[in-house]
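Form 7-S
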Amino acid sequence: MKLKNIFSLNTRKFRIEKNLSQEELAEKAGVHRTYIGSVERGERNITINVMEKISVALEKPITDFFME
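Output:
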């Protein structure tokens, strides 16, 4: 599986674990609400900066996002 897809699936999993909507996560991460949906669907090639914002917003180490 591609790293982008692993990151996408884990973003969704961790967001649901925190009981956050995509809009709430977007607000916490400082990105547009539609951006999170496209990340979770694997439609975006996101930057390391955005990965870090999502990681911080979900209070998870960034390495966790790449674990299958």
